[in-house]
Amino acid sequence: MKILHLSHAMVWGGNEQQLIDLIPELENLNTDNIIFCFEESAMNKYCLKNKIKQISIPKKSTYSVSLAIKLNKIIGDYSIDIIHMHTSNSVGSFLLFQLIFNKKISSVFSKKGISDSSSFLSKIKYNFKRIDQFICVSKAVQENFSNVLSTQNRLKLNLVYDGINLNRLNSNSSYIIKKELKLDDNVFIIGSIANHSKAKDLNTLIKAIYELTNNLKEKNIFCFQIGGHSSLTKNYNTDIEKLNLKKYIKLVGHKKNASSYLSQFNCLCFSSVREGLPLTILEGFHAKIPIVSTKAGGIPEVISDGENGSLVDLHDYKMLAQKIKKLIYSKELREKFIKNGKKTLENKFTNRICAIDTLYVYKKAIKN
Fold first, then answer.
1. Which of 64, 157, 284, 303 is the most buried if burial means most Cβ atoms within 10 Å?
2. Are 158 and 223 in the same domain?
3. Which residues of 89-101 are buried (b: 16+ CB within 10 A; e: fewer)?
């Protein structure tokens, strides 16, 4: 079985990491995989560096006729059996390709995130009859995505949880947080890995750090926040300065191989209002880091409150601070979360399990 994976993303994120984690285990299941991406994209550079099979072209618009022609040629030249779309834009390109060439080929689209709204064009695109199966990474994503699908197309929905490649998570960063930032050895490091988007709601994280340091009087903490900056970053920094939090939190921007910093965190914190299923949670389980998170999207499907992590309601910065404080003073609770998090990861969220479930969806698509 030969699969062509379509990714139109130019930058690196959780979706791109998941695709890279998935392919080795798909290969072990006797499939042949090729990634189609744009030149100079993060995916293109990663594939070239790591010798992963890929075909790249100069960046094109979603509904580019020349892109559709290129897809048609690749499918013929490589005898592709299945097109697996990993980004929303790739669905649009697939739609145009089929309208032009009407090719008999199986197709799958992976829906990773939760949308707060859907346009008329999106509904047309996702209900395109030539998409054979859909993969959703969590029940929350499945429920949200079903709102844009027809009753008939909802029958094509499949739940396949993301899984991580445990073999890539053994590296440690040469950047030593406490040394570089001149922090005492006994400072409790609160880690955050989230790009600066509205969905990640870093305002709640900043408020939680204020609650900890001012109202709960926890001065021996520091929040190390990793994530790509955006137009929101200026406001975050303004709030940090107004609340006199500069010595308690630092927005360090994007870091390559962000998971390599996990081993230096005393806890990992998520303040999101919208999530599919963040890979960073799974990476945190593997790194043996206790996790505190909001109940965004698919997160409660991974974290069971009080068992393998702590959960709080969306925007509830006071309870987020309380849960972090509880971890600071309870070694027993930290060890419980670490132990149970490891079990959760190994039993449900490896890339081997993800690949087996994905292959099952491929077979359904071909059958259709």
1. 284
2. no
3. bbbbbbbbbbeee
